[in-house]
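Schema walkthrough. Field components (list of strings):
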Amino acid sequence: MKATGLTEWLAILLWAAAPFLTGVFAVLLFATPVQLFDMAVPMPLFPFMVVFYWAMLRPNLMPPLAIFLIGLFQDFLSGGPVGLWALSYLLAAALISTQRGIFAWRGRAALWAGFAIAAILVAAISWLAARLALGTAPSGGALFSETLATIVAFALVMPLLDAIRHVTRQARRLTVHSTMAGGQ
Amino acid sequence: MPMTRQTPIHTASGPDGIWRRNAYIVLVLVSIVFLVLDRARPERSPFLPGKHAVMTLMAPAMAALSAPLRTLNQASLVLASNWHAASRLRQLEADKRNLLYWRDLALALQEKMLRYEKLLHAPDAPRPVVVTARIVSDSGGPFVRTRLVNAGTADRVARGQAVLAYNGLIGRVMAAGQHSARVLLLTDYNSRVPVFVAQTGAHAILAGDNSPVPRLDYIARGARMKAGMRVMTSGEDGVLPRGIAVGQVVPAEPGRWRVRLYANPGNADFATILALPAVPPVQDGKVAADVPVAPASPDTGSPQSQHTGAAADSQNGRAE
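Field assembly_structure (string):
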């Protein structure tokens, strides 16, 4: 790989940092209060969508440290138990990434199926972690509705993430003479 | 943008896979350690400064991000309001007739109370300073019930102060930065608020369990409970003032009672913070009068108001 100008470096930086920055933005979005018809709406777990998407399709751009930091940022922003979401995301991503051969690069339906399993894993892990951290069993109702919303919303978010991946890849390709032909 | 590829997919094998697997293991262990450290003594968590810093740094971003979503909510409210316009109008007219009666009664009682206080040489009750703040962030997640508001120590907000929305208590300030504060809602697992039932005087603890209707624990023995009774803060914790309306008693599991909150924190855009010392200082062995007790004069719209009118009165306050 040869990079000679500032534009090329910026393109590489954008390409490499896009997954993590998208994750950070997803945490902020997740923490935003949303109401429809004066009722609180269960918020889909956007950060995990980002984590899962990149961990499945481009794991080199979503290393465990990035997953950990996204989870930790969510923990700090929520004011809840520190480590809860970091632990949930890491465990779920580690478990589901062993099945990349089944779910990744086999079309959106396969990715969505993988995500549904991963979202249920996150819900189960976070419930257990919350159970231990809070000392009492959290109500499953809110968790169930949130998980359902997360699985459904992933179908809508997937094209957006595809677009981000496409744009950053194109920006990098246009500016950098890469030897990784057909790398994505 | 094809979602398929011809090249083989690398899973957790090879040097990169081993490195990745080890990183997962190490970071999972670090997360568990963090969780233990944070929850061992939540009030002295080593992460409190970090949470504080993130809250302060992210409050402006959250305020900007929540603005378009507020518009969405307002648009949906307009739609819903128009849908039942005729019935809502009738309801509002009936409410207005009732409220005029209650206003006259309140003014008469206030006048009577002031006369009694003068006769008894009662000390003036501390006047709460009402700070209205916009709720800019949800807690994010099913396990925590907190809100971030855009008012902080610069606006005289401090830890422990009561937070109300529209017509009742929703929680208390758990941490305050310079221009932002985190509010622990009554529905959160960690929330415990001493309350009493207005009709019987029975004391209890209002305990959050992440459900929208917190439960009443440790109800005084022999207390006669009935659905619909008013629940108010008792001020026994020395944190929240006495007499703030909380909600109504509703039956729960056999032998248990819960409280339907007057104010639903889930759909509140604004929070009203009673920025005053929660418990008046002891003077000559006597505690000063309870606060807040007296409604403000509707003519003046004074911010030193009673809880039920505070939020509405102060909507034209700081946040806008």
